[in-house]
Amino acid sequence: xxxxxxxxxxxxxxxxxxxxxxxxxxxxxxxxxxxxxxxxxxxxxxxxxxxxxxxxxxxxxxxxxxxxxxxxxxxxxxxxxxxxxxxxxxxxxxxxxxxxxxxxxxxxxxxxxxxxxxxxxxxxxxxxxxxxxxxxxxxxxxxxxxxxxxxxxxxxxxxxxxxxxxxxxxxxxxxxxxxxxxxxxxxxxxxxxxxxxxxxxxxxxxxxxxxxxxxxxxxxxxxxxxxxxxxxxxxxxxxxxxxxxxxxxxxxxxxxxxxxxxxxxxxxxxxxxxxxxxxxxxxxxxxxxxxxxxxxxxxxxxxxxxxxxxxxxxxxxxxxxxxxxxxxxxxxxxxxxxxxxxxxxxxxxxxxxxxxxxxxxxxxxxxxxxxxxxxxxxxxxxxxxxxxxxxxxxxxxxxxxxxxxxxxxxxxxxxxxxxxxxxxxxxxxxxxxxxxxxxxxxxxxxxxxxxxxxxxxxxxxxxxxxxxxxxxxxxxxxxxxxx
Length: 483
Prior knowledge:
The chain is an alpha+beta fold.
């Protein structure tokens, strides 16, 4: 995280610039106000680990196993076994036989594999069998091409193609044979499925090629994509990810995001296609080469004019001491909520989304008001901050709404101490004292971004890393006790 976020809870003392006068409450708008121009949300920066733990390295195949695998496969093929271990061995032998029979010609291997599997499985049609995929490339920089082939383990579990697990087999040429050197499989619930190779290039400038491949799991309403990054060193295959990166409907882009001359991996997506998933927006995770591994260094949310996301972005801008940006974001959220006050079911322009009914709408409005007050006080605009408080108290209902009372606590504590962090933490204590009444969407949204309870006051230096605060996108739901 930037240094500003990691500051301890140091005081921000802002002495009043002039005596405070009771301001005139803001009159209700007579027409729909235009949005205040605000830049896109700030990237959420994440500090990489200095000693990342890499994904486990698969063991090379022993020479006796390779000899057994190279034994010719009988034709016609016997029916594949039911055991998952024996099934993997069966298809490892089959693909090794086909690679050698067709001298590494991937097109011929794919056609022969399809014919062999439909022959072995009665009633199994080719449209239910996923594709063999593979690439030829010099992966270890020794001047000789390797062959990496991903093979679906077609069995009784493959009622549809997307349910077939895969293995990856890396071959090297040894005299007249293509010899398998290592078998790549998934781990636990991170299995390989519907694999496609995204890139083979020396992205981190270490002199060896990195293989970026994607594994897709298709659900009833949402497809999840896992990003794998590996490298063949000539003897050992190493996975280079420090984090298992899984995202709903992910697209992958490779470019130098941070300007350090190395290619970064950008994973964008995260929208779960389910009604109960809640309000969502896309995010981009940035994986960069840090300390010997690809680590998540930033989470970049998509810009949105929805008041809920404006509130979250304003909170992050406050944590970064971006006072003007935070005030603009919160003001936009305020305008959006006020404009929609008489539309009980929708936000303007988002007819399919839910606007929180009372009292949840009042809670959101009151917290957005608190964010505006914090930004305005930090900018030395005390009269305007007090005007927001007056408007907030005139608009947001008091019942089941600790945010309304906490806004008054923020103001009174600031007047008494002149210290913004002290006032902010007093506001947070008041809100967290009523855990039963702090949620904005208590019944809705298992894949929504949530404001962590420890971030209600964004100025006290306790903002969490993104992997603890939110998830991974499309996998983790709300944290217990989060608004």
